[in-house]
Amino acid sequence: MTWTAPEITRTPQLLVGDERAVLHSLLTRGREILLWKCQGLNGSQLAARSVEPSTMSLLGLIRHMTEVERGWFRMRAAGEEIPYLYSDETNEDGDFDDTVSEQAEADYARLVEEITACDKAIADLPLDHTVTHPRSGKDISLRWIYLHMIEEYARHDGHADLLRERIDGAVGYQ
């Protein structure tokens, strides 16, 4: 039997609440939209590349967001000393470049697991918690990381819209 990405039941967006709850609701929305764009597709479909020379695929986006979640929330904000899963100094784009359709189920599960681990890692950190930005060397807050992650998902959810339409014509937003 061929694995297909499971159906996603999206969480209602929180429109009123404290700052942390609203930020988390927006982040959850972005996470769920990416998974929703993947639902019902098999590994081959998820690994299908958009157009040459791009290496972008839905599976690549899943792997990329696993790395981004891990990097910003666990490695930077929470200070966990853990490696990236798909990329390293010799291959910065391993998340996109090294997709294998037969590993789609494991990669999908890894993103879901990483989201849970990230939420747990930052649960007790205040929004004003600061860390050093890896490129600029400037202090950034957990609040900034939340906003950056919301932005990151928004950008890649747009890519996912186009990739999904190319795969099977599915369009729209429910």
Structure description:
Helix content is 55%, strand content 3%. The radius of gyration is 16 Å and the shape is globular. The chain has a two-stranded antiparallel ribbon. Strand 1 and strand 2 form a beta hairpin. Helix 1 packs antiparallel against helix 3, helix 1 runs parallel beside helix 6 (142-168) and helix 3 (58-77) runs parallel beside helix 5 (104-122). It has helices at 19-38, 43-47, 58-77, 94-97, 104-122, 142-168; strands spanning 130-132, 139-141. It has 174 residues and is mainly alpha-helical. It has 6 helices and 2 strands.
What's this model, at a glance?
It contains six helices and two strands; from the N terminus they run αααααββα.
Please report the total strand number as a whole number.
2
In DSSP terms (H or I, runs of 4 or more residues), the helix count works out at 6
Main β-sheet: number of strands, strand sense, barrel status?
2 strands, antiparallel
Shape: globular
Report, as a whole number of angstroms, the end-to-end distance.
28 Å
Helical amount: 40-55%
Derived from helix and strand composition plus strand pairing, the structural class reads mainly alpha
Helix/strand order: HHHHHEEH
Strand order of the largest sheet: 1-2
State mean pLDDT (0 to 100 scale): 92
* pLDDT < 50 stretches: none
The proportion of residues in beta strands is under 5%
What radius of gyration results from the CA coordinates? 16 Å
